[in-house]
Amino acid sequence: MLTKMASHFMRKNNIKFYFNADRIYRRYSVIASVIKEANVGEVTEVKGWVKNLRVQKELVFADISDGSCAKKLQIVIPKNLKTDELTYGSSVRVIGKLSKSPRGQLELAAEDVKVLGECVVLDGYPFNPRTTHSAEYIRQYLHLRCRTNYISALLRIRNAVSKHIHNYFDIKNYLHIHTPILTSNDCEGAGEVFKVLPDNKDTIKAMMQQDKNVDNVYFGSKTFLTVSGQLHLEAMCRGLGNVYTLGPTFRAENSRSRLHLSEFYMLEAELAFCENLEDLQSSIEDLLKYIFIETRNTNEDDLYLIDKEKNKPPTWLDKKFITITYTEAKDILKRKGLPDTEDGINKEQELALVAHCDNVPVFIIRWPKEQKSFYMKESQDNTKVEALDLLAPITGEIVGGSLREDDYKKLKLKLPSEALNWYLELRKFGNIPTGGYGLGLERLLQVLCSVPNIKDTLPFPRWPHNCDM
């Protein structure tokens, strides 16, 4: 057992070390740092959860994870330090000396072991040791599923991708804008919005005014959870230049498919002085390749944990994305014998187009204007808009974007509501051409990690009839 540590300390590489007369003791460090530094011979304290336990004649071997990385740290425990509370799933604190096993593996020779939280599997803990549970099974236990290798790896990758997104836009000199979650806009005009009202009837009664109804009593107008921050970004772009946002968006769609959520995160960017689709496409392609390459550099072990068979880099990373027009896409689908759809391109057709392009992401550009939103710039023949969808393997559509209508007169004719007069007024004073796009973070993670179901790409998914916790 360790003797009581003195209160004196020193610093080395910004890590606090406690020491007494005969040894230096490094205070608690995350396992990712311990494995990375691999300071053999150093006395270290780690904390985490027991992922595997092997009891032998004189020693007990425990694999410990604290969630900071995909790798686990092997703890070598003398039999006399093993208690009945030390089981699979229990949380522990271990102090010991780092060493290398005969096979060269970093391990911690335990000198002090304390069980912080017991885990009795037979009391209802849903995950069994040395068992691979299906994603569908794990999804029943949202509060516990981050303990599994699959979900913990996905959430570490999600964290890394978020950082890479911010790093990319910082390098490119974009400003990060916090667009509002509460809004009076239905940007996409599809009516798939969640209405926001006070739940307290006394508040509504106290605020009710003459000629007001319940829907607008609090804010003075109907208010929704945002479906997009795009319109707000357009306002910011016309004074700050290139801008982006990354935040939650909400869609009241009655869909339980593997590709839909009621709440999800959307990366949206608006490019100032953008006058053609080619510049917009180049920006999107550059961003996606940056994210994929950086994530492979930072989270290769996590990608391997998620899918040992599909963890190789996608073949399209060194290829240019393909571009075809909407008309060309329809011709390809017709030749393949797929049924024609008058209202656009459905999911089956999207995936067929990606397969036709050898699973290289493909831009579909210049769509019929009646299929797209009012804010998209009309082409010269006034039948199409300068819009794009980027299709990718697994998900189909992953990015949607367009040039924005910058003609005041044309936009005024298409404006769906007088409540958007402020948006029209942006074209009146010092207007500039802009273009922008939206990228669903969860669909991006599906493509990056080869995850079939979008509900496994975030900690607490929400979909129709499901808002647990």
Question: Care to describe what's here?
Answer:
With 469 residues, this protein is α+β, with helices and mostly antiparallel strands. Helices cover 26% and strands 25% of the residues. It has helices at 31-37, 135-138, 149-171, 201-207, 230-240, 277-298, 300-306, 326-335, 347-356, 408-414, 421-425, 441-449, and strands spanning 9-12, 15-19, 24-26, 43-55, 59-65, 73-78, 91-100, 106-117, 175-176, 182-183, 224-225, 243-250, 263-272, 322-325, 362-368, 384-392, 396-403, 434-440. An eight-stranded mixed β-sheet has the order 9-12-13-18-17-16-15-14, sandwiched between helices. The chain has a five-stranded mixed barrel with strand order 4-5-6-8-7. A hairpin with a 5-residue loop joins β7 and β8 (106-117). The protein is globular and about 85 Å long. Residues 1-16 have low confidence and may be disordered.
Number of helices: 12
Kindly state the percentage of residues in helix: 25-40%
Content of β-strand: 25-35%
Report strand order across the widest sheet: 9-12-13-18-17-16-15-14
Give the integer mean of the pLDDT values.
Answer: 91
Number of beta-strand segments: 18
Distance between the termini: 42 Å
Model regions low in confidence, pLDDT < 50 over at least 5 residues:
1-16
User: C-alpha Rg, in Å?
Assistant: 27 Å
